[in-house]
Amino acid sequence: MASTGPASSLKRPEAPVSAREGDELVITPLGAGNEVGRSCVYMSFKGKTVLFDCGIHPAFSGMAALPYFDEIDPSTIDVILITHFHLDHAASLPYFLEKTTFKGRVFMTHATKAVYKLFLMDYVKVSKVSVEDMLFDEHDINLSMDKIEVIDFHQTMEVKGIRFWCYTAGHVLGAAMFMVDIAGVRILYTGDYSREEDRHLRAAETPQFSPDICIIESTYGVQLHQSRHIREKRFTDAIHTTVSQGGRVLIPAFSLGRAQELLLILDEYWSNHPELHNIPIYYASPLAKRCMAVYQTYINSMNDRIRSQFASSNPFDFKHISSLQSIDDFNDVGPSVVMASPGSLQNGLSRQLFDMWCSDKKNACVIPGYVVAGTLAKTIITEPKEVTLMNGLTAPLNMQVHYISFSAHADYAQTSAFLKELMPPNIVLVHGEANEMGRLKQKLIGMFSDSNTKIVTPKNCQSVQMYFNSEKMAKTIGKLAEKTPEPGETISGLLVKKGFTCQIMVADDLHVFSQLSTANIYQRITIPYSGAFGVLKYRLQKIYESVVLGTDEELAVPTLRVHDRVTVRQDSPQHLSLHWNAEPISDMVSDSIIAMVLNISREMPKVVPEPEETSEEEKEKKILKVVHALLVSLFGDVKFGEDGRLVIRVDDNVAYLDRQSGDVESENEGLKDRVRTAFRRIQTAVRPIPLPAS
User: Fold this and answer.
1) Which of 157, 311, 370, 390 has the most CB atoms around its CB within 10 Å?
2) Contact in structure between 52 and 88 (CB atoms under 8 Å)
3) Could you give the angle at the alpha carbon of 684 between the alpha carbons of 680 and 686, nearest 5°?
4) Band of pLDDT at residue 7, cut at 50, 70 and 90
5) How much of the chain, in percent, has pLDDT values that exceed 90?
6) Across the beta sheet with 474-476, what order do the strands follow?
7) Which residue did the predictor score with more confidence, 307 or 358?
8) Of 8, 17, 34, whose CA–CA distance to 373 is shortest?
9) Which residues are catalytic?
10) DSSP one-letter string for 340-401
11) CB-count exposure of residue 355 (10 Å: 0-12, 13-18, 19+)
């Protein structure tokens, strides 16, 4: 019986009584439900469980930043799929792998794994929390690296019957959307994605077929992004104006992701404006050099523009940008532009520089990405009069604050177009603030008003139930697939099941298309028999049409080959042996022979071989006599008619039976069917079992 879900679940209003528990698919956000941050979505179906992403909430620290892991049993998770390296999607993975009972497998793309370690090592170093509040340390990160497996884009993997593959998601280097297939039900989890190609990243791909469920981000709700060219102009104008007036520009951004896009814009702009060449640009991140090395390693994962440029020169070898390792190395004299991490302004170099510059009205802070509620970056967008510094003191916020989003998240235009192309019957919105998500849901309901699309916005720990009665389908492969069967034709082969996939193949193909192999079991049994071998032959011929007398050349003893399946050999005057290859029909034939031999042994004094009939005519007369006797026992009045047919009378009804063709004529349909059925069964009983066609 299906369980009752929350009011907003996708459970059908009236689930059929026959719905089995195994048909229920459950999706539960453990994070990113009606919020942005700590993305983590639990899904279970057919006894298989998947965890999409494993992030932290940037606005919180310690255990409060984790997804709601206490809602699940980590030991039941079969596979974790990480979409990209951002902290809100991957930073709780070391904790989950090393501090819980999780025993499954973890997958991410090559580039994501390369950046994951750099990002989390930096996160541990800059986190201003006590040792007790630390979720994990560098040792845990190194241990987690050994457990992470990599997957290529479009590569299909299978874990315990769960098939999955991934598509390019845009957003950041290595970001992926995962398609999961369990028992024929497909679920697409987009993670963070962008369908707009920028200066270095490709746009997100569109899967070639529609999923049954699409779990999709709703970060920007119904908002529409400005065109990239307008945003770039606003960005460079704000910076140019500030440095021209002797001010300093702080650009808080995470070390990898939007930072590389913005550095490409700044380097090109500085190259085109000689008057700015004496004003320095700093990329202030402890990971600066290593991040650039990662980008150069995965240059083939970027768009055509970058790859063609890389053939002649390194686009990430910036002419006007210098790296800055720490605040101690910074000579803060005169105007400058500093891009520093993290983008949330919660701690690290970006927070240190903000505290130094926020009181001077000549300075500016350009926030280039999405800001999460509860962070300082979100707070200063509202331009409060004062802010709290890291030392606990307050300071006036006099610097200019510009919010120019280069965040590589889909806006409403991208989201609606993406969903129109896919047309999934079920849509689950995650990774969005409650208000934005609610507005997006209403817009999508209007957009899909002509279809039966279900759209839900579950909160954290709120489960969504759906029911899928997936049909079982088996595919013919190998030699069986060489010829297309006619409608109604029976296909015969071996059914091989692996996970939720069923295939039919001939035995010879078993070792080619599976890890199985075939073997023949040769069976032999010896039974007591002291009678004449001719009696045995006679009795077998009464049962089976094909009984061939032969001789064992090696032992020079008589044999009988029954039905071309079982060989009966007279090993001695007191014993017989039966030999056959084990399979259902041969087993049945051998069983009947054994039963008959044992029965002959009990009634031996009565058993003598009768002389064989001299002609087929005499055989037919004997069979006709038996048929007539059996019909009399069933119907009573049965006589031979003048035309050779049998006349059968039951009460006032008469039936005429043609014993050659088996045709029956009678005005009473009931009697007609009874006679036809009885005659067919009698014919089968009185004649030997025919040899089946090969």
Assistant:
1) 370
2) no
3) 115
4) very low
5) 49
6) 474-476, 501-505, 494-498
7) 358
8) 34
9) 409
10) ES-TT-SSHHHHHHHHHHTT-TT-EEEE-S---TTSHHHHHHT--SEEE-TTS-EEE--SEE
11) middle
Give the three-state DSSP class for 540: helix
The set of residues, in sequence order, having a beta carbon less than 8 Å from that of 610 and lying 6+ positions away, is 538
Question: What is d(CA 26, CA 49) in angstroms, rounded to the nearest whole number?
Answer: 9
Evaluate if residue 1 carries a pLDDT over 80.
no
Q: Report the alpha-carbon angle 179-181-184, nearest 5.
A: 140
**Which residues have a Cβ under 8 Å from the Cβ of 623 and sit 6 or more positions away?**
686, 687
DSSP 416: H
Please provide the DSSP assignment of 261-284 as one string: HHHHHHHHHHHT-GGGTTS-EEEE
Predicted local confidence at residue 288, as pLDDT:
64
Give the pLDDT of residue 14: 42
Note the pLDDT of residue 599. 86
- DSSP letter at 64 equals G
Q: How far is CA 512 from CA 160, 161, 307, 385, 507, in A?
A: 21, 20, 41, 73, 10
Q: Tell me phi and psi for residue 164, to 5 degrees.
A: -155, 155
b/e burial code for range 19-48 (CB count within 10 A of at least 16 → b): beeebbbbbbbbbbbbbbbbbbbbbbbbeb
**What are the pLDDT digits (tens) for 512-521?**
888 888 788 9
CB-based contact 452:425 (threshold 8 Å):
yes
Report how far apart, in Å, the C-alpha atoms of 142 and of each of 14, 85, 139 are.
50, 15, 5
Tokens of residue 16, six digits: 């059929």
pLDDT value of residue 322: 87
The string of pLDDT tens digits covering residues 153-167 is 999 999 999 999 999
Residue with tokens 């079969």: 78
Whole-angstrom distance, CA of residue 223 vs CA of residue 220: 5
| The pLDDT of residue 633 | 84
Q: Which two tokens stand for residue 586?
A: 């041969």
Q: What is the pLDDT of residues 400-414, one digit of tens each?
A: 999 998 888 999 999
401 in Cβ contact with 367 (< 8 Å): yes
Question: Does the predicted model carry a pTM greater than 0.70?
Answer: no
DSSP strand pairing (426-430 vs 213-217): parallel
User: In this predicted structure, what is the pLDDT of residue 171?
Assistant: 87
Continuous segment of H or E residues that includes residue 591: helix 584-602
Q: How far apart, in Å, are the Cα atoms of 133 and each of 66, 130, 345? A: 12, 5, 20
pLDDT for position 55: 96
631: nearest Cα among 688, 681, 687, 689: 681
Determine the Cα angle at 404 with ends 400 and 408, to 5°.
150
